[in-house]
Specification:
0% of the residues lie in helices and 48% in strands. By secondary structure, the protein is mainly beta. It has a four-stranded antiparallel sheet, with no helix packed on it. Strands 8-9-10-11 form a four-stranded antiparallel sheet, with no helix packed on it. It is globular, with a radius of gyration of 16 Å.
Length: 196
């Protein structure tokens, strides 16, 4: 869509930039915790341009906004039951419009439709920190084991490896070059892998 969406966690905002680096919009009130955000942790864009935010540190919900930044829906609450979160730390929207949330402190991924209806829960992680999907909706999940887990779009396990020593906090990829980039916090670096 030609925009860059950045989470400003401590300012409680999503900041939107154009290709030239100019701020073109904001969602949330700067330095005002609560509504709509309280320390958001991740943002993802749906195939229709809608904006999905893992409001992970304070509100422990997922929020959906239209491409224009208007509220559409909110789902989740603090807890351990299905559909609840302890820390919705990362979010990714698949090509189908369904949403995968890394529920870090509950050690799981939760898969929802675009309006918050729970479709599946996938376990077998230790504090999953981020999730990314390639053009085939194959999911790549980083956690604090540290490991990189690969799943089919339906959650079926493909494989797991340990590509970095201390774990990756962030992940993204380049489908055209078939590369995956892992953002490590200790040491502070980016590791590039060839996608499987």
């Amino acid at each position: 869509f030609g925009r860059l969406y950045v989470v400003d966690r401590d300012a409680h905002q999503i900041v939107i930039f154009d290709r030239k680096g100019r701020v073109t919009g904001r969602i949330g009130t700067r330095h005002a915790a609560g509504k709509p955000f309280n320390h958001p942790s991740c943002v993802a864009i749906g195939p229709d341009g809608d904006i999905f935010v893992a409001d992970g540190y304070g509100n422990t919900v997922v929020q959906r906004f239209s491409a224009k930044g208007e509220p559409v829906c909110v789902w989740g609450s603090r807890g351990v039951a299905a559909g609840q979160f302890l820390s919705p730390h990362a979010i990714y929207v698949l090509k189908t419009g369904s949403v995968v949330v890394a529920d870090r402190e509950n050690n799981r991924l939760q898969h929802f439709d675009g309006h918050g209806r729970l479709l599946a829960i996938w376990t077998g992680f230790y504090r999953p920190t981020n999730v990314w999907a390639d053009q085939d909706d194959k999911l790549y999940v980083t956690d604090q084991v540290p490991s990189l887990t690969v799943l089919e779009g339906n959650g079926a396990f493909i494989g797991r490896c340990r590509p970095v020593l201390f774990g990756a906090h962030g992940i993204c990829g380049d489908d055209h070059r078939r590369r995956i980039y892992l953002a490590e916090t200790n040491p502070s670096r980016v590791t590039c892998l060839e996608a499987c």
